Amino acid sequence: MPSPHATVRPSPPALLLDNQVCFALYSASLAMTKLYKPLLDAIGLTYPQYLVMLVLWERDRITVSELGERLFLDSGTLTPLLKRLEASGLLERQRDAQDERRVRISLTLQGRALRDSAESVPACVLQGSRTPLPELQALTLQIQALRNELSQR
């Protein structure tokens, strides 16, 4: 009977951890979130809350379903997130007057004001990444293209 600690044969290159695009994306995401954490703590947001606020700062009064599409999140994930942001006084949720099935999300004055505090976040992330802006922009486009391809499956 072979020992459970017996040497296994070497993995082919396709099975090496460092050759996995999924692991590169996953570990980079963890590192990026770690970089964001102190910056977002300073303005009182979690990373998912920051993403919601970014969308609302782009376009206020959107529906929950529009927000979900924009962030690639379902309503089960969004609802508790939106409730916490509403409890913090950053946004309001209201049924759409034309269609009661839809819930519209609006920034409060406090939510709009928070944008000023958040304006320094991207520059701090750029500095913390130690990557030139053109390279980060190109990488962002490549990752978005990959996401779009994978989303079509």
Description:
This protein is mainly α. The chain has one domain: Arc Repressor Mutant, subunit A, CATH 1.10.10. It is built from seven helices and three strands, in the order ααβααββααα. The chain has helices at about 20-45, 45-60, 65-70, 75-85, 110-120, 120-130, 135-150, and strands at about 60-65, 90-95, 105. Strands 1-3-2 form a three-stranded antiparallel beta sheet. The longest helix has 23 residues, at about 20-45. The chain starts with 20 loop residues before the first helix and ends with a helix.
How many E-type strands?
Answer: 3
Helix content estimate = 55-70%
User: Uncertain spans, ≥5 residues at pLDDT below 50?
Assistant: none
**The CATH superfamily title:** Winged helix-like DNA-binding domain superfamily/Winged helix DNA-binding domain
Termini distance?
44 Å
Shape-level CATH architecture: Orthogonal Bundle
From the alpha carbons, calculate the radius of gyration and give it in angstroms: 20 Å
Number of domains: 1
Number of helices: 7
- Which structural class fits the helix and strand makeup? mainly alpha
Could you please say which CATH topology applies here? Arc Repressor Mutant, subunit A
Mean pLDDT: 94
- Looking across the biggest beta sheet, what order are the strands in? 1-3-2
The major β-sheet equals: 3 strands, antiparallel
As a percent range, the share of strand residues is: 5-15%
Sequence of secondary-structure elements: HHEHHEEHHH
Q: What is the CATH C level class, in words?
A: Mainly Alpha
Shape: extended
